[in-house]
Design a protein that fits this description.
352 residues, alpha+beta, Jelly Rolls, 4-stranded antiparallel beta sheet, IPNS-like_sf
């Protein structure tokens, strides 16, 4: 199954005062795709292929740096919420969540995820995007950034790509709100001053390039919406709301959006957090061979950004979602508290 591709250009060009029936229908398509598949492909004229390439080039160079160099940029006492997270630190939810494990066993064999045998084999770098609140109860989730030595272009490249992806998410969040029958700013007003994180991952396919290797085990994202540029190596599988497993193919020039747990909370379970994994597939192996022939880097970089609800804002079903039959499963909870609870489960909290 191919995910729908939504071109954001008509919405960006439209008068904010009044939406045409065509644009209202487009907003409906956005909300429907997020509800039914937990994912959406978008084309944003402000995010170019060259922007994505420049970002991935720099991150390949960083991830292939020596391990002791990268370890200088770890901040475990800040829950790894800035700087680098080494491989074998982040634990996939499916490894520690017994309820999730039971659900996986009940899935048809062809839809079951690959079973992770330990922590994820990917590295990750967290870089904050956008302003942070001057007053917050959640200082660690809003910490100062870490800049690696010898990367003079780092800040400009990270900020430029991160801000463009946040801008794309904000448009999708507005369109989704309209499609869900909420106020246009229902989501974006809660995102203001959120702890948004540009969070590229790096997986060493020279070391972990064998077919079937799990780079990131089956999990959901704890944030609001996640956005990725196209990776140079395939391997992302997602699960639709009906339980069907789909290998994602991102067309050139498109961005992939996935639903996180915070949008599930705000819609009272109408729109659920999308499950996904990253695995070395036969298509990944083919891409590795091509990269070797072309003498390119064998680090699989994802240009991922996590858009969050502000830490001090309250997560609760919005508007008519209060009447949802599942709404009682989503009691009011401070977004920062929710994030800290999740980080404790996946081993990114409490490490010194």
């Amino acid at each position: 199954m191919d995910l729908p591709v939504v071109d954001l250009s008509p919405y960006l060009a439209a008068s904010p005062a009044q939406l045409s029936p065509e644009l209202t229908a487009l907003c409906g398509e956005v909300s429907r795709s997020l509800r039914e598949t937990g994912a959406l492909l978008v084309k944003d004229p402000r995010c170019s292929i060259e922007d994505n390439d420049r970002f991935i080039d720099m991150m390949e160079r960083y991830f292939q740096s020596p391990q002791d160099f990268k370890q200088r940029h770890e901040r475990p006492y800040l829950h790894y919420q800035v700087g680098v997270t080494p491989e074998k630190v982040e634990v996939p939810r499916s490894l520690v969540d017994e309820e999730m494990q039971e659900k996986l066993k009940a899935m048809p064999k062809e839809y079951q995820p690959h079973a992770p045998v330990g922590p994820d084999l990917k590295w990750r770098y967290f870089w904050r995007i956008g302003p942070r609140p001057s007053n917050t109860r959640f200082k660690e989730l809003n910490a100062e950034p870490v800049i690696p030595e010898g990367f003079s272009e780092w800040k400009e490249t990270m900020d430029s790509w991160g801000n463009k992806m946040i801008a794309a998410i904000e448009v999708v969040a507005e369109m989704a709100a309209i499609g869900f029958g909420l106020q246009k700013d229902a989501f974006t007003s809660l995102m203001k001053l959120g702890p948004h994180l540009l969070a590229p991952t790096g997986s060493d396919l020279q070391k972990y390039g064998q077919e079937g290797t799990v780079l990131a085990g089956y999990h959901y994202d704890l944030n609001f919406l996640t956005i990725h540029g196209k990776s140079r190596f395939p391997g992302l599988n997602i699960w639709l709301k009906n339980g069907q497993k789909v290998e994602v193919k991102v067309p050139l020039g498109c961005l992939l959006i996935q639903t996180g747990k915070q949008i599930e909370w705000l819609t009272g379970g109408d729109c659920i957090a999308g499950m996904h994994e990253v695995v070395v597939t036969n298509r990944t192996v083919e891409a590795i061979r091509t990269a070797e022939e072309q003498k390119r880097s064998l680090w699989r970089v994802s240009s991922t950004l996590f858009a969050h609800i502000a830490s001090d804002a309250v997560l609760k079903p919005l508007g008519h979602f209060v009447e949802s039959p599942l709404a009682s499963k989503y009691p009011p909870l401070c977004a920062g508290e929710y994030v800290e609870q999740e980080l404790a489960v996946i081993n990114l909290k409490g490490q010194k």
